[in-house]
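User: Run a structure prediction on this.
Assistant: Running it now.
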Amino acid sequence: MKYACVISKMTRANGRNGTGAVMGSKNLKAVVLQRKATITPYDKEGFKSLTSSVEMKDKIKGFTDGWGVGGTGTFLYSQNRNGFLPTKNYSEGYMEDAPKIDGRKMMETGILKGRETCYACAVRCKRVIDIPGKVFPEYGGPEYETLATFGTYCGVTDLETICLCNQLCNMYGLDTVSTGATIAFAMECFEKGILTKDTTDGLELTFGNHNILPILTEKIAKREGFGNFLAEGSKRCADQLGEKAIPLFMGVKGQELPAHMPQAKPGLGIVYSTNPYGADHETCEHDSMITIPKKPYKERIDMIGDFKHYTDPTIIDENKMRYMFATQCFYSMNDTLGLCTFVWGIAWQLYGPDNLLDLCKYGIGWNTSIVELLEVGERRINMMRYFNAREGFTKDDDKLPERVFNPVPEGPGKGIGIDKEQFFKGQEMYYKRAGWDEEMGNPTEETLKKLKLDWLLS
Protein backbone atom coordinates (compact mmCIF):
# COMPACT_ATOMS: atom_id res chain seq x y z
CA MET A 1 0.00 0.00 0.00
CA LYS A 2 1.13 3.52 -0.81
CA TYR A 3 1.89 4.86 2.69
CA ALA A 4 3.83 1.87 4.02
CA CYS A 5 6.73 2.48 6.44
CA VAL A 6 10.08 0.98 7.20
CA ILE A 7 9.85 -0.36 10.78
CA SER A 8 12.70 -1.21 13.13
CA LYS A 9 12.55 -2.69 16.64
CA MET A 10 8.79 -3.21 16.07
CA THR A 11 8.11 0.34 17.29
CA ARG A 12 10.25 2.77 15.26
CA ALA A 13 8.74 3.96 12.01
CA ASN A 14 10.52 5.65 9.12
CA GLY A 15 7.04 6.86 8.81
CA ARG A 16 5.90 9.06 5.97
CA ASN A 17 6.05 9.41 2.20
CA GLY A 18 5.75 5.68 1.58
CA THR A 19 9.39 4.71 2.13
CA GLY A 20 8.25 1.17 2.85
CA ALA A 21 6.22 1.12 -0.37
CA VAL A 22 9.37 1.97 -2.32
CA MET A 23 11.24 -0.88 -0.62
CA GLY A 24 8.33 -3.23 -1.28
CA SER A 25 8.19 -2.27 -4.95
CA LYS A 26 11.80 -3.44 -5.23
CA ASN A 27 11.08 -6.68 -3.34
CA LEU A 28 13.43 -5.46 -0.62
CA LYS A 29 12.20 -6.93 2.67
CA ALA A 30 14.78 -5.62 5.10
CA VAL A 31 18.16 -3.97 5.56
CA VAL A 32 20.31 -5.54 8.27
CA LEU A 33 23.39 -3.79 9.65
CA GLN A 34 26.05 -5.38 11.84
CA ARG A 35 28.49 -3.22 13.71
CA LYS A 36 31.98 -4.70 13.53
CA ALA A 37 33.76 -2.27 15.82
CA THR A 38 32.89 0.20 18.53
CA ILE A 39 32.92 3.77 17.26
CA THR A 40 35.00 6.09 19.42
CA PRO A 41 34.73 9.89 19.53
CA TYR A 42 37.41 12.01 17.90
CA ASP A 43 38.09 13.67 21.27
CA LYS A 44 37.07 11.30 24.07
CA GLU A 45 37.53 13.73 26.95
CA GLY A 46 35.79 16.57 25.15
CA PHE A 47 32.94 14.30 24.16
CA LYS A 48 32.56 13.05 27.73
CA SER A 49 32.32 16.62 28.97
CA LEU A 50 29.18 17.10 26.88
CA THR A 51 27.22 14.72 29.10
CA SER A 52 29.08 14.82 32.42
CA SER A 53 28.73 18.51 33.26
CA VAL A 54 26.14 19.65 35.80
CA GLU A 55 24.85 22.13 33.26
CA MET A 56 24.15 19.43 30.66
CA LYS A 57 22.61 17.11 33.25
CA ASP A 58 20.20 19.89 34.20
CA LYS A 59 19.26 20.37 30.55
CA ILE A 60 18.70 16.64 30.05
CA LYS A 61 16.55 16.53 33.20
CA GLY A 62 14.40 19.26 31.68
CA PHE A 63 13.63 16.96 28.79
CA THR A 64 13.14 13.82 30.87
CA ASP A 65 10.74 15.65 33.19
CA GLY A 66 8.78 16.90 30.17
CA TRP A 67 8.75 14.78 27.02
CA GLY A 68 9.97 11.72 28.88
CA VAL A 69 7.36 11.43 31.62
CA GLY A 70 4.31 12.57 29.71
CA GLY A 71 5.31 11.72 26.18
CA THR A 72 4.06 13.67 23.20
CA GLY A 73 0.53 12.50 24.01
CA THR A 74 0.25 15.21 26.67
CA PHE A 75 0.35 17.74 23.83
CA LEU A 76 -3.13 16.61 22.82
CA TYR A 77 -4.56 18.24 25.95
CA SER A 78 -3.05 21.68 25.26
CA GLN A 79 -3.95 21.58 21.56
CA ASN A 80 -7.57 20.84 22.44
CA ARG A 81 -7.64 23.43 25.23
CA ASN A 82 -6.51 26.09 22.76
CA GLY A 83 -9.05 24.95 20.17
CA PHE A 84 -6.62 23.75 17.51
CA LEU A 85 -6.81 19.96 17.72
CA PRO A 86 -7.82 18.63 14.26
CA THR A 87 -11.21 16.98 14.66
CA LYS A 88 -13.52 15.16 12.24
CA ASN A 89 -11.22 15.35 9.24
CA TYR A 90 -9.99 18.85 10.08
CA SER A 91 -13.52 20.33 9.97
CA GLU A 92 -13.27 21.37 13.64
CA GLY A 93 -10.57 22.20 16.19
CA TYR A 94 -12.04 21.04 19.48
CA MET A 95 -13.55 17.85 20.91
CA GLU A 96 -15.06 17.92 24.38
CA ASP A 97 -14.09 14.34 25.24
CA ALA A 98 -10.52 14.58 23.89
CA PRO A 99 -9.00 14.29 27.42
CA LYS A 100 -10.19 10.66 27.38
CA ILE A 101 -7.40 9.80 24.93
CA ASP A 102 -4.50 12.07 25.89
CA GLY A 103 -1.17 11.09 27.42
CA ARG A 104 -2.30 11.69 30.98
CA LYS A 105 -5.18 9.24 30.56
CA MET A 106 -2.66 6.52 29.64
CA MET A 107 -1.03 7.00 33.03
CA GLU A 108 -4.31 7.31 34.95
CA THR A 109 -5.79 4.12 33.49
CA GLY A 110 -2.64 2.11 34.15
CA ILE A 111 -2.22 0.90 30.56
CA LEU A 112 1.09 2.76 30.37
CA LYS A 113 3.56 0.19 31.67
CA GLY A 114 6.85 1.90 30.95
CA ARG A 115 9.01 4.11 28.76
CA GLU A 116 11.28 2.96 25.97
CA THR A 117 14.25 4.75 24.48
CA CYS A 118 16.25 5.08 21.34
CA TYR A 119 19.80 3.83 21.92
CA ALA A 120 21.48 5.53 24.91
CA CYS A 121 18.92 8.36 25.16
CA ALA A 122 18.16 9.67 28.64
CA VAL A 123 14.83 11.22 27.66
CA ARG A 124 13.02 7.88 27.18
CA CYS A 125 9.97 9.42 25.50
CA LYS A 126 8.56 6.25 23.88
CA ARG A 127 5.33 4.83 25.34
CA VAL A 128 4.98 1.16 26.34
CA ILE A 129 1.34 0.05 26.48
CA ASP A 130 0.06 -3.23 27.88
CA ILE A 131 -3.61 -4.19 27.59
CA PRO A 132 -3.77 -7.92 28.39
CA GLY A 133 -4.91 -10.02 25.44
CA LYS A 134 -5.26 -6.96 23.19
CA VAL A 135 -2.20 -4.67 23.01
CA PHE A 136 1.29 -6.01 23.70
CA PRO A 137 4.19 -3.96 25.12
CA GLU A 138 6.68 -4.98 22.44
CA TYR A 139 4.71 -2.83 19.96
CA GLY A 140 5.14 0.32 22.07
CA GLY A 141 2.29 2.80 22.25
CA PRO A 142 0.74 5.76 20.42
CA GLU A 143 2.28 9.22 20.34
CA TYR A 144 0.47 12.51 19.78
CA GLU A 145 0.00 12.23 16.02
CA THR A 146 -1.47 8.72 16.31
CA LEU A 147 -3.77 9.69 19.17
CA ALA A 148 -5.06 12.53 17.02
CA THR A 149 -5.36 10.81 13.64
CA PHE A 150 -7.07 7.65 14.93
CA GLY A 151 -8.78 9.67 17.66
CA THR A 152 -10.05 13.18 17.08
CA TYR A 153 -9.67 13.07 13.28
CA CYS A 154 -12.19 10.21 13.39
CA GLY A 155 -14.26 11.60 16.29
CA VAL A 156 -13.15 8.62 18.40
CA THR A 157 -12.48 8.68 22.15
CA ASP A 158 -11.82 5.00 22.86
CA LEU A 159 -8.20 4.86 24.00
CA GLU A 160 -7.85 1.07 23.85
CA THR A 161 -8.96 1.00 20.22
CA ILE A 162 -6.43 3.69 19.29
CA CYS A 163 -3.68 1.73 21.04
CA LEU A 164 -4.72 -1.38 19.12
CA CYS A 165 -4.61 0.51 15.80
CA ASN A 166 -1.13 1.79 16.66
CA GLN A 167 -0.07 -1.82 17.25
CA LEU A 168 -1.57 -2.97 13.96
CA CYS A 169 0.26 -0.20 12.10
CA ASN A 170 3.56 -1.25 13.69
CA MET A 171 2.86 -4.92 12.91
CA TYR A 172 2.07 -4.29 9.25
CA GLY A 173 4.32 -1.29 8.65
CA LEU A 174 1.77 1.48 8.12
CA ASP A 175 2.14 5.23 8.61
CA THR A 176 -0.25 5.99 11.48
CA VAL A 177 -0.79 9.60 10.32
CA SER A 178 -1.85 8.73 6.78
CA THR A 179 -3.78 5.63 7.87
CA GLY A 180 -5.88 7.47 10.46
CA ALA A 181 -6.31 10.53 8.24
CA THR A 182 -7.38 8.43 5.24
CA ILE A 183 -10.01 6.69 7.38
CA ALA A 184 -11.20 10.11 8.64
CA PHE A 185 -11.50 11.27 5.02
CA ALA A 186 -13.59 8.17 4.23
CA MET A 187 -15.79 8.85 7.25
CA GLU A 188 -16.63 12.34 6.06
CA CYS A 189 -17.31 11.01 2.57
CA PHE A 190 -19.68 8.46 4.13
CA GLU A 191 -21.47 11.07 6.23
CA LYS A 192 -21.93 13.26 3.13
CA GLY A 193 -23.30 10.35 1.10
CA ILE A 194 -20.33 10.13 -1.27
CA LEU A 195 -19.63 6.64 0.06
CA THR A 196 -22.32 4.16 1.10
CA LYS A 197 -22.44 0.75 2.75
CA ASP A 198 -22.54 -0.76 -0.73
CA THR A 199 -18.97 0.44 -1.28
CA THR A 200 -17.57 0.12 2.28
CA ASP A 201 -18.08 -3.64 2.72
CA GLY A 202 -21.20 -2.88 4.77
CA LEU A 203 -19.27 -0.87 7.37
CA GLU A 204 -20.91 2.15 9.02
CA LEU A 205 -18.22 4.79 8.52
CA THR A 206 -19.64 7.42 10.85
CA PHE A 207 -17.48 9.69 12.97
CA GLY A 208 -17.11 8.20 16.44
CA ASN A 209 -17.56 4.57 15.40
CA HIS A 210 -14.39 3.20 16.98
CA ASN A 211 -15.24 -0.42 16.23
CA ILE A 212 -14.44 -0.06 12.53
CA LEU A 213 -10.93 1.40 13.01
CA PRO A 214 -9.03 -1.87 13.58
CA ILE A 215 -11.14 -3.60 10.91
CA LEU A 216 -10.24 -0.95 8.32
CA THR A 217 -6.58 -0.89 9.38
CA GLU A 218 -6.34 -4.64 8.74
CA LYS A 219 -8.18 -4.33 5.44
CA ILE A 220 -5.87 -1.53 4.30
CA ALA A 221 -2.74 -3.49 5.24
CA LYS A 222 -3.95 -6.59 3.38
CA ARG A 223 -5.64 -4.65 0.53
CA GLU A 224 -8.87 -6.52 1.18
CA GLY A 225 -12.21 -5.23 -0.10
CA PHE A 226 -12.73 -1.55 0.69
CA GLY A 227 -9.23 -1.52 2.20
CA ASN A 228 -7.78 -1.95 -1.28
CA PHE A 229 -9.33 1.41 -2.19
CA LEU A 230 -8.12 3.21 0.96
CA ALA A 231 -4.61 1.76 0.59
CA GLU A 232 -4.03 4.28 -2.21
CA GLY A 233 -4.27 7.21 0.25
CA SER A 234 -6.92 9.89 0.53
CA LYS A 235 -5.65 11.99 -2.42
CA ARG A 236 -6.07 9.18 -4.94
CA CYS A 237 -9.36 8.17 -3.29
CA ALA A 238 -10.66 11.72 -3.62
CA ASP A 239 -9.64 11.91 -7.26
CA GLN A 240 -11.51 8.69 -7.98
CA LEU A 241 -14.62 9.72 -6.06
CA GLY A 242 -14.82 13.00 -7.91
CA GLU A 243 -15.81 16.62 -7.48
CA LYS A 244 -17.59 16.36 -4.12
CA ALA A 245 -14.78 14.40 -2.46
CA ILE A 246 -11.78 16.43 -3.67
CA PRO A 247 -12.27 19.31 -1.16
CA LEU A 248 -12.33 16.74 1.65
CA PHE A 249 -8.73 15.64 1.00
CA MET A 250 -6.67 17.26 3.75
CA GLY A 251 -3.09 17.17 2.56
CA VAL A 252 -0.33 18.61 0.40
CA LYS A 253 1.30 16.94 -2.61
CA GLY A 254 -0.67 13.80 -1.86
CA GLN A 255 0.46 13.52 1.77
CA GLU A 256 -2.11 13.86 4.56
CA LEU A 257 -1.79 16.75 7.04
CA PRO A 258 -0.33 16.01 10.48
CA ALA A 259 -2.15 17.16 13.63
CA HIS A 260 -1.00 20.80 13.76
CA MET A 261 -3.54 23.23 12.36
CA PRO A 262 -2.25 25.97 10.03
CA GLN A 263 -5.02 28.26 11.29
CA ALA A 264 -3.00 28.70 14.49
CA LYS A 265 0.41 28.26 12.84
CA PRO A 266 0.34 29.93 9.41
CA GLY A 267 4.14 29.95 9.10
CA LEU A 268 4.12 26.19 9.51
CA GLY A 269 1.27 26.11 6.98
CA ILE A 270 3.44 27.90 4.43
CA VAL A 271 6.21 25.35 4.98
CA TYR A 272 3.59 22.56 4.70
CA SER A 273 2.72 23.93 1.27
CA THR A 274 6.23 24.58 -0.06
CA ASN A 275 7.97 21.54 1.45
CA PRO A 276 9.25 19.21 -1.31
CA TYR A 277 7.71 16.12 0.30
CA GLY A 278 4.41 17.62 1.42
CA ALA A 279 3.00 18.49 4.82
CA ASP A 280 5.29 17.48 7.67
CA HIS A 281 5.24 18.87 11.23
CA GLU A 282 8.92 18.07 11.80
CA THR A 283 10.25 20.02 8.83
CA CYS A 284 10.71 23.32 10.70
CA GLU A 285 10.00 24.97 14.02
CA HIS A 286 6.41 25.95 14.80
CA ASP A 287 5.12 29.51 14.98
CA SER A 288 4.44 29.21 18.70
CA MET A 289 8.18 28.97 19.44
CA ILE A 290 8.82 32.45 18.10
CA THR A 291 6.61 33.80 20.87
CA ILE A 292 9.12 32.61 23.51
CA PRO A 293 11.02 35.69 24.69
CA LYS A 294 14.79 35.51 24.86
CA LYS A 295 15.01 37.06 28.33
CA PRO A 296 14.29 33.92 30.40
CA TYR A 297 17.06 32.05 28.60
CA LYS A 298 20.24 34.02 29.16
CA GLU A 299 22.33 31.60 27.07
CA ARG A 300 19.92 31.53 24.14
CA ILE A 301 21.59 32.50 20.87
CA ASP A 302 19.59 33.01 17.69
CA MET A 303 21.04 31.24 14.67
CA ILE A 304 21.31 34.17 12.29
CA GLY A 305 20.80 37.73 13.39
CA ASP A 306 18.21 38.76 15.93
CA PHE A 307 14.72 37.41 15.31
CA LYS A 308 11.86 39.59 16.43
CA HIS A 309 9.56 37.79 18.85
CA TYR A 310 5.78 38.02 18.95
CA THR A 311 2.91 37.73 21.39
CA ASP A 312 0.68 36.55 18.51
CA PRO A 313 1.98 33.48 16.62
CA THR A 314 -0.47 33.95 13.72
CA ILE A 315 1.42 36.94 12.26
CA ILE A 316 2.88 36.52 8.76
CA ASP A 317 5.70 38.90 7.81
CA GLU A 318 9.30 38.96 6.53
CA ASN A 319 10.70 38.22 9.98
CA LYS A 320 8.43 35.18 10.35
CA MET A 321 9.46 33.83 6.94
CA ARG A 322 13.14 34.31 7.74
CA TYR A 323 12.55 32.38 10.94
CA MET A 324 10.60 29.57 9.24
CA PHE A 325 13.20 29.06 6.51
CA ALA A 326 16.15 29.22 8.93
CA THR A 327 14.55 26.60 11.20
CA GLN A 328 13.66 24.48 8.18
CA CYS A 329 17.34 24.47 7.22
CA PHE A 330 18.22 23.57 10.80
CA TYR A 331 15.81 20.64 10.91
CA SER A 332 17.00 19.52 7.47
CA MET A 333 20.55 19.51 8.81
CA ASN A 334 19.35 17.50 11.84
CA ASP A 335 17.98 14.87 9.49
CA THR A 336 21.22 14.83 7.53
CA LEU A 337 23.32 14.27 10.67
CA GLY A 338 20.86 11.73 12.07
CA LEU A 339 20.05 13.76 15.19
CA CYS A 340 16.87 13.71 17.27
CA THR A 341 14.50 16.46 16.19
CA PHE A 342 13.05 16.85 19.68
CA VAL A 343 16.28 17.09 21.62
CA TRP A 344 18.25 19.21 19.16
CA GLY A 345 15.33 20.99 17.50
CA ILE A 346 14.00 22.28 20.80
CA ALA A 347 17.36 22.63 22.52
CA TRP A 348 18.73 25.26 20.15
CA GLN A 349 15.64 27.38 20.80
CA LEU A 350 16.21 27.31 24.55
CA TYR A 351 19.96 27.10 24.92
CA GLY A 352 21.55 28.10 21.63
CA PRO A 353 23.53 25.99 19.13
CA ASP A 354 26.86 25.80 20.99
CA ASN A 355 26.33 22.24 22.23
CA LEU A 356 25.72 21.07 18.67
CA LEU A 357 28.96 22.67 17.49
CA ASP A 358 30.80 20.95 20.36
CA LEU A 359 29.19 17.63 19.38
CA CYS A 360 30.57 17.96 15.85
CA LYS A 361 34.00 19.03 17.12
CA TYR A 362 34.45 16.38 19.80
CA GLY A 363 32.53 13.62 18.03
CA ILE A 364 34.04 13.68 14.54
CA GLY A 365 36.70 16.41 14.62
CA TRP A 366 34.65 18.87 12.57
CA ASN A 367 35.24 22.49 13.59
CA THR A 368 32.13 23.86 11.98
CA SER A 369 29.85 26.86 12.46
CA ILE A 370 26.10 27.27 12.65
CA VAL A 371 26.19 29.04 9.27
CA GLU A 372 27.94 26.06 7.67
CA LEU A 373 25.51 23.62 9.30
CA LEU A 374 22.52 25.58 8.06
CA GLU A 375 23.93 25.45 4.54
CA VAL A 376 24.07 21.65 4.82
CA GLY A 377 20.33 21.69 5.48
CA GLU A 378 19.66 24.24 2.76
CA ARG A 379 21.51 22.13 0.17
CA ARG A 380 19.31 19.15 1.02
CA ILE A 381 16.10 21.18 0.67
CA ASN A 382 17.22 22.55 -2.69
CA MET A 383 18.23 19.13 -4.03
CA MET A 384 14.78 17.78 -3.18
CA ARG A 385 13.05 20.81 -4.68
CA TYR A 386 15.17 20.52 -7.83
CA PHE A 387 14.22 16.85 -8.16
CA ASN A 388 10.55 17.84 -7.93
CA ALA A 389 11.07 20.54 -10.57
CA ARG A 390 12.60 17.95 -12.89
CA GLU A 391 9.47 15.84 -12.43
CA GLY A 392 7.22 18.78 -13.36
CA PHE A 393 6.33 20.30 -9.98
CA THR A 394 5.90 24.08 -9.71
CA LYS A 395 4.53 26.56 -7.21
CA ASP A 396 1.06 25.56 -8.44
CA ASP A 397 1.54 22.38 -6.39
CA ASP A 398 2.24 24.40 -3.22
CA LYS A 399 -1.37 24.41 -2.08
CA LEU A 400 -3.08 23.94 1.23
CA PRO A 401 -6.60 22.49 1.39
CA GLU A 402 -9.24 25.21 1.06
CA ARG A 403 -10.70 24.21 4.43
CA VAL A 404 -7.77 25.58 6.44
CA PHE A 405 -8.56 29.08 5.17
CA ASN A 406 -11.95 28.89 6.87
CA PRO A 407 -12.07 30.15 10.47
CA VAL A 408 -12.35 27.45 13.13
CA PRO A 409 -16.14 27.02 13.60
CA GLU A 410 -16.42 26.17 17.30
CA GLY A 411 -14.47 25.85 20.54
CA PRO A 412 -11.74 28.05 22.09
CA GLY A 413 -10.22 28.72 18.65
CA LYS A 414 -13.53 29.84 17.13
CA GLY A 415 -13.16 32.49 14.43
CA ILE A 416 -9.39 32.10 13.94
CA GLY A 417 -8.21 31.28 10.43
CA ILE A 418 -5.61 32.20 7.83
CA ASP A 419 -6.07 35.32 5.76
CA LYS A 420 -5.61 33.94 2.25
CA GLU A 421 -4.09 37.13 0.84
CA GLN A 422 -1.53 37.25 3.67
CA PHE A 423 -0.78 33.56 3.17
CA PHE A 424 0.07 34.02 -0.50
CA LYS A 425 2.20 37.05 0.33
CA GLY A 426 3.99 34.90 2.90
CA GLN A 427 4.64 32.24 0.26
CA GLU A 428 6.24 34.85 -2.00
CA MET A 429 8.40 36.00 0.91
CA TYR A 430 9.41 32.37 1.46
CA TYR A 431 10.37 31.83 -2.23
CA LYS A 432 12.45 35.00 -2.14
CA ARG A 433 14.16 33.97 1.10
CA ALA A 434 14.92 30.50 -0.34
CA GLY A 435 16.31 31.94 -3.58
CA TRP A 436 13.65 30.36 -5.79
CA ASP A 437 12.27 32.01 -8.92
CA GLU A 438 9.03 33.99 -8.72
CA GLU A 439 7.32 32.35 -11.68
CA MET A 440 7.82 28.64 -10.94
CA GLY A 441 8.89 28.64 -7.29
CA ASN A 442 11.93 26.49 -7.97
CA PRO A 443 15.67 26.96 -7.27
CA THR A 444 17.36 29.43 -9.57
CA GLU A 445 20.67 28.70 -11.28
CA GLU A 446 22.25 31.39 -9.10
CA THR A 447 21.03 29.70 -5.90
CA LEU A 448 22.27 26.29 -6.98
CA LYS A 449 25.70 27.71 -7.81
CA LYS A 450 25.86 29.54 -4.48
CA LEU A 451 25.18 26.24 -2.69
CA LYS A 452 27.73 24.40 -4.89
CA LEU A 453 24.93 22.40 -6.48
CA ASP A 454 25.60 23.53 -10.03
CA TRP A 455 26.45 19.89 -10.88
CA LEU A 456 22.67 19.36 -10.89
CA LEU A 457 22.45 21.57 -13.98
CA SER A 458 24.72 19.39 -16.12
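The chain has a mean pLDDT of 91.
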